[in-house]
Design goal:
six-stranded antiparallel barrel; about 15% helix
Amino acid sequence: MATDFLTAAEKSQMRADLLDLVQDPQVGGTIRYDSFVSRGAFSPTTGQVSETYAGTWVDMMRFDLMEPELASSGGQFQFGDSRYMIPVAQVGIIKKDDRIFDDVTRYVVRSSTDAAYIFHAVIVRNLAGES
C-alpha cells in the first residue's frame, strides 16, 4: 500500500487533524450529502424520472477550482465547479449520481480518495444554474 511508511498512530493523527479542520467554522462547514439509491419509472405526465436519495449531514471543506486547474483539465472541469474535501469516515463510497446541497444542489463530476484513505476529494457542478 502507498502509505506503508505511516504508522497506525500517524494515520490516526492525520484523521483527527482533518476532522478538526472540517469542523472548524473558519475553514469548514456542514452540508447535506445525498447518496443516490435508485431511479424510479418515467412519468409521462411530468416528463420526469423519479430518483431516490439517502441524505446525511457531513463535515467538509470547500474550494472553488482555480483557472490553472480548469485550463489543464482538458474540458473536464468548468468555471463554477468546486472541490469538497469530505472525511471517508462520514461517506464511505462516493458515486457519480450522488449530490451535495449547501447553498445550491451540486452533482458529483469526479471523486478520488487520498492514499491514506482519510478523505475524498469530490468535484461537483451546479447543473441547474442556481446561484
